[in-house]
Design brief:
The structure holds two protein chains of two kinds.
Chain A: H1 7-68, E1 73-78, E2 83-84, E3 87-88, E4 90-95, E5 106-112, E6 117-122, E7 132-135, E8 139-144, E9 147-152
Antiparallel strand pairs in A: 1-8, 2-3, 4-5, 4-7, 5-6, 8-9
Chain B: H1 2-42, H2 49-70, H3 77-101, E1 105-110, E2 120-128, E3 144-150, E4 152-162, H4 168-175, E5 186-190, E6 195-201, E7 207-213, E8 218-221, E9 231-234, E10 239-240, E11 243-244, E12 258-263, E13 268-276, H5 289-299, E14 317-332, E15 336-344, E16 357-365, E17 376-383, E18 389-398, E19 404-410, E20 415-422, E21 431-440, E22 447-455
Antiparallel strand pairs in B: 1-14, 2-13, 2-14, 3-12, 4-9, 4-13, 5-6, 5-12, 6-7, 7-8, 9-10, 10-11, 14-15, 16-17, 17-20, 18-19, 18-21, 21-22
The chains are: A alpha+beta, B alpha+beta.
Chain lengths: ~150, ~475
């Protein structure tokens, strides 16, 4: 107004604003989609672990039926994925853990680290079962010295 | 300047685009895993263990049917065992072929004991196949014992006619008091009042079947009755005319040995059969461990009876039969391998037999010429389905005046033979009761006895006189 030309300033400010807003939007989009992907991955791991757990539980219960029918010489094998959503996992048979709330007598715990996800599947069996822990993959259920044993099926 | 700025803007969009692409690829991978999970979850969760169970059931049912079809009253135990083993062999080949078609391996064979002998338990089949007569034994008796201290299977009857028509409440009143000869209708008693099955008319010519179970203190008329004659009652399967009758299944609760008894046998006409886990001598004679004991209970001793005919001489008769066996089943499937031993005893009334049995008794009368030279050599063949025979005790009792001598011999394994010699200073031509008792090694020993009467007349293994 007083002899300064402000039209160039307007262009610079306009450019800076455009750049800033674009950066903000792009960052927001990337952060948002990253969070969404992460969330989906956790859910996928969780559901896959519980599906695998239920399949192992089905085998353990089949073994329990064999023992209850008086047969002790059997092997039940099942091929399961070595990894869930690219992460290896661990299967543990937990017996009578008092720290669990609500306390379950016997259950299967399947867990991955990074992200830390745990799925627990209750086991309703009448036969005693041995505690064990192994890396996920193929699984076998056998019976030895009065206990059901769940282990890698190698 | 303007060129550089444009390049800056381009970089930002490029970075944004790459970041988005990576994120979408990651999402696609995660979704892929999710789809795989769904796929895994929707697969059949059964591990194939059911196929193992099926193989086991098939073996038990198939070999049970085979055993019953092998049972032939005119064949002795040796032929029965050979015929059964040949049948198992045929069955084994057949099963191996059909299971191979389904990608499995199933092997079935008769189990063996420690010494390599096949596990086959002898029994006796009681048959009255004349449908026009009542249920009385050979020597007339209306309340009589069909099979004492046994486990039974394959117990079925076909009732052609009934002559008693009591009301349900009359039947119930008479069955639940535990006594024998009351009532005017036919019933089967198992284990001295523990379980009773009445068969009577409803007044219109149809037949009712009712069961009294002492453990539940309950009388129940089969809901499938009344039915028109002829009525087929299968106690082992729990059916009346092939329709399940809930009340009949309560016989499964019977434990240990039981006695099967008929009351008012003249109030019903038809045929019946049952297989019991005791043995007889062979096909041509009506004597043996089973019939001796049955005759003793019904008539005091064999010579005052007998209860049964030998096969081919009339009804009812007894014939050798196989009672039970064990089969080894080896199953190899895609994911399950399974070894099992199944019991073969079709239509058994209650759980498996475990009491030892006396297979045969031979009393060699070696009494000499001297007046005090009574001498018996008693040889007993015993068997035990559990394979834990413990001892055989033989007791010699003089009938006239008190004199008792007992000798005990050790027995072991599944089958064994015990021989004992009795040589008391007693005059010739004296009557003795010889009681043979076999026990197994259970904490509370299971045992079974047979009593035979013999005269010390030096006739060797017998001249057919009565008593021998």
């Amino acid at each position: 107004m007083n002899g300064f030309d402000t039209r160039g300033v307007s262009t610079t400010v306009g450019f800076a604003l455009t750049l800033g807003i674009t950066t903000l939007l792009v960052t927001g989009l990337l952060v948002g989609i990253g969070g969404f992907v992460d969330d989906q991955r956790q859910r996928a791991i969780e559901s896959e672990l519980s599906v695998i757990g239920q399949q192992i539980a089905a085998d353990v219960q089949a073994g329990d039926r064999f023992v209850q029918a008086g047969d002790t010489e059997f092997t039940i094998r099942r091929d399961l994925p070595n990894a869930v959503v690219g992460r290896t996992y661990r299967v543990s048979v937990v017996v009578d853990d008092p720290g669990n709330d609500p306390p379950l007598d016997t259950y299967l715990r399947l867990e991955t680290s990074d992200p830390d996800i745990v799925a627990e599947i209750d086991l309703a069996v009448r036969t005693d079962i041995a505690e064990s822990s192994f890396t996920g993959g193929s699984v076998s259920v056998t019976y030895d010295s009065g206990e059901l044993e769940v282990d890698t099926g190698a | 300047m303007a060129t550089v700025r444009e390049r800056d803007r381009g970089q930002l969009i490029l970075v944004a685009g790459l970041g988005l692409a990576v994120a979408l690829v990651a999402l696609a991978l995660v979704l892929n895993s999710a789809i795989y999970t769904q796929n895994l979850a929707s697969r059949n969760i059964e591990s194939g263990a059911n196929d193992g169970f099926e193989a086991r059931q098939d073996a038990s049912a198939g070999l049970g049917g085979l055993m019953d079809s092998t049972n032939d009253p005119t064949a002795d135990y040796g032929s029965l065992e050979a015929a059964y083993q040949a049948g198992v062999e045929d069955w084994r080949e057949h099963v191996a072929q059909t299971s191979a078609l389904r990608g499995r391996s199933v092997r079935v064979e008769t189990a063996t004991d420690g010494a390599g002998n096949p596990i086959l338990d002898r029994g006796v089949r009681v048959v009255d196949d004349d449908g026009t007569t009542d249920f009385s034994p050979r020597s007339t008796k209306l309340d009589w014992t069909v099979a004492p201290d046994v486990r039974a299977r394959n117990f079925r009857m076909v009732v052609e006619d009934v002559s008693a028509t009591p009301t349900d409440s009359e039947v119930e009143d008479e069955l639940d008091d535990g006594t024998w000869t009351e009532g005017s209708f036919f019933y089967v008693d198992v284990d001295d009042g523990e379980w009773r099955m009445a068969v009577y008319g409803d007044g219109s010519g149809d037949v009712k079947v009712g069961v009294y179970d002492a453990s539940a203190d309950e009388y129940t008329v089969c809901s499938v009755s009344p039915v028109a004659t002829p009525v087929r009652i299968d106690v082992g399967r729990g059916t009346v005319d092939s329709v399940p009758c809930e009340a009949l299944t309560s016989i499964e609760d019977q434990t240990g040995l039981y006695t099967v008894h008929y009351a008012n046998a003249d109030k019903v006409q038809g045929s019946y059969e049952l297989t019991a886990d005791r043995a007889i001598e062979g096909t041509s004679s009506d004597v043996g461990a089973f019939t001796d004991e049955t005759d003793r209970i019904n008539y005091g001793r064999h010579c005052d009876g007998p209860t049964y005919y030998a096969p081919g001489n009339g009804n009812p008769y007894v014939g050798p039969a196989l009672y039970s066996s064990e089969a080894d089943v080896t199953f190899r499937g895609e994911s399950v391998s399974y070894d099992s031993t199944v019991r073969v005893a079709a239509d058994e009334l209650s759980e498996g037999a475990s009491s030892p049995q006396i297979r045969s008794i031979t009393v060699d009368d070696q009494s000499g010429v001297s007046v005090t030279d009574t001498k018996f050599v008693v040889t007993v063949d015993v068997a035990d389905p559990d394979g834990d025979l413990s001892e055989v005790s033989i007791e010699l009792d003089r009938i006239s005046t008190s004199f008792t001598e007992t000798k005990t011999g050790a027995a072991s394994g599944r089958t064994d033979t015990v021989t004992k010699t009795f040589d008391p200073s007693i005059a010739l031509d004296t009557d003795f009761d010889i009681t043979i008792t076999v026990r197994d090694g259970a904490a509370t020993p299971n045992e079974r006895s047979v009593v035979q009467r013999h005269t010390s007349d030096g006739d060797g293994t017998g001249d057919g006189s009565c008593p021998e």
